[in-house]
Amino acid sequence: MIEREKNQAKSQRQQTTRSDSQSICAITNEPRHSFRALCSLIDPMTKLKIIRSRSHQFCSLLFCLLAFCLTTTARVSQSYRIEGTVTDQNGAPISGAEVTLRASGFSANQLTDSEGHFAFDALRSNSGTLMIQAKGFATVEREWAVETSGATHLNITLAPAPLSEQMTVTAERTATRVGDTAASVIVLSREDVSTTAALTLDDALRQVPGFSLFRRSGSRTANPTSQGVSLRGVGASGASRAVVLSDGIPINDPFGGWVYWGRVPRESVGQIEVVRGGESHLYGTDALGGVINFLPTEARNQTLSLEASYGNEQTPDASLFAADSFSNWRVRLAAEAFHTDGYIIVDERERGRVDTKAGAEHTTLDLTLERLFSNASRVFARGSIFGESRENGTPLQQNRTHIRQLAIGGDWQSEKAGSFSARAFASTQVFDQDFSAVAADRNSETLTRSQRVPAQQIGLTAQWSRAVALKQALVAGFEARSFSGASDELVFAGGRLTSAVGAGGRERIVGAFGQDIIHITPRWIATVGARVDRWRNYDALSTARPFTPTGVFALTKFNDRTETAFSPRVSLLHKLNGNVSLMASGYRAFRAPTLNELYRTFRVGNVVTTANPNLRAERLTGGEAGANVTAFNQRLNVRGVFFWSEIARAIGNVTVALVVPFPPTNPPSQIIIRERQNIARTRSRGVEIEADARLSESVHVSCGYEFVDATVLKFPSIFTLEGLLIPQVPRHQFTFQARYANPSRVTVAIQGRAVGAQFDDDQNLFRLARFFTMDAFASRRLTRGLDVFAAFENLLNQRYEVGRTPTRTLGPPILARIGIRVRLGSAR
Length: 828
Prior knowledge:
- By secondary structure, the protein is mostly beta strands.
- The protein is built from 8 helices and 45 strands.
């Protein structure tokens, strides 16, 4: 009995020892516990038993601990590093590109820095995939593998995205793929703008079919009052039929509606978006024919971009963009200075002693300060100044402009609430203009009017947008703008001051809009939007104060007027497959008359155009339908659109009289008197066809054609104008561009433009002949960040007609210039 109890106790001690040994081995295989902690888990009796155990058990324990340390060390030392550089096809680094790494269930992402670099450290896997995305570029996905531990460097080149992958924020006031919108959208990238020979932004936009300014003129030498945009032949009379935005803020002149293109420094432009067709459902007045939006260059870090050139006609030019960031603050500076002696605009066969060069110069400065709260939230303040002076072809005809503007705003985004943005801006400006009467032989001139036009505006816009379950994109907003301005004139007769006249008033516009983009199915997308605007003209009057003894002071007050416009739009897009899409849209749009059209009279040559305080708003009803086709792995994109629009109460310059001046001039001449009037109904219909082909990574070719039939349908008060063509609208326009870009050698680009005949007057008497021009550009990289270039506008030196007033004026001759470009940091 006693022996049996001894054997049971011995057996129990052996089992306890084996259990403790197993516990020790289990603990030593757990790296989170130290050896001291291990010992604290063992009771004193067990410790004594371990010490007294046989030597091979102690050696086994040491072996387990050594194996654990070696295994852990090997695991820690076996790590990998992936780094690389993302560049475009020209070899320029792309900053802000999103790089996503996936490997063995692990995923991480980051943005490239100002030099296009990225790096992932301490990777446990030696293979995986990388996906690189950047705005305006096609997405790249590639596999990576590392054979040995250490770092591996990858060089990744992004190609420009095909048209269907590019993004636009203009068409729908929210980020939308071009391939997902039924609107007719053209996107000009930074590369498109920088490889054109054009010295001004409006000339760069002439590669867009349907884009034109009044009298074929350009901002390099033309009077600013002729620089309003016309799209799709909806009419041209100096006032713009398209709203022009810079970072979401309109830059159309508050008094006259024209555009000072020099206000936006070229180097600050990252992308230009052009939307053709009525867009009043989102942008209100001025968007009768479309929208042009200049998007700023995105700069996350230190950036410097400078272009300086010098050309014939004594034409120096410099454009600068610089940016820097510190902590959560970012500062951006944009500036531009331009001068040209110009050329004599009158045809050599009609020139006289008074004809001189039409020169121009301008300077602009834009400073922006931003406070960043996240990648999608910010507040900013921006101040800008602009000054311009022009000589308009004779010693007495000159004009000057000074503009000051302040803007503040903010953007905030929430996953649940959506995106919010707000902008508030105010500006003040003064425009001075001198007019003269030129003798029929053009050997003398006399001053007729000296104008000063002060104008002010304030504006506010607020917008909310939100995606709902990936099926809908909602947009809603509110806008309010207030304008005031006057035309104060000194009137001369026979070189003597005879009177002072003035006219002006105020205008206030308030609008609210909403839109819903509905993804009915992956192949069907519908867009429904509408806007209501109400505007009021008030405090309007005209005065006439004579400086002759028999003159009588006159004061006329105009009645206050109010109008309301409802602007709906409905669009439908159907994707037949991955390569073919069909689209159709119907819309209404409007444009309220400008203060300039209501109250300011002007003179060009022997044509005097008078104001009309009784003008009413233009109302457009239109639609379009077309197709978009891609082929050859999206390297070729072709888009065709048929459009139709009718405008009720279109505002035009209508000839009302021919006057012989008294006393008569020698030789005799006639004065053409025109008045701004509401034409009962006009129609513009036609076809747009565009093609874009990327033949290789280095070769890009595009072209476009537009046919427009723009006529007067109904005008009972002057029925002789019915059936005539709308002035300043050519029936045919064709453009093409070709670019070869090889960063190790050269970049070469050519652009061509053919424009059909058009008329310079409402009676279709003064015909402007068709013309063709070609531009060329070439650049060569000297070192990293430094290029030299040569540019030639109107390479064939075609002297085409731009106006007949009735004196024939010509477009610019060849402009050749050479220059340098410095691009450092993320501006590349």
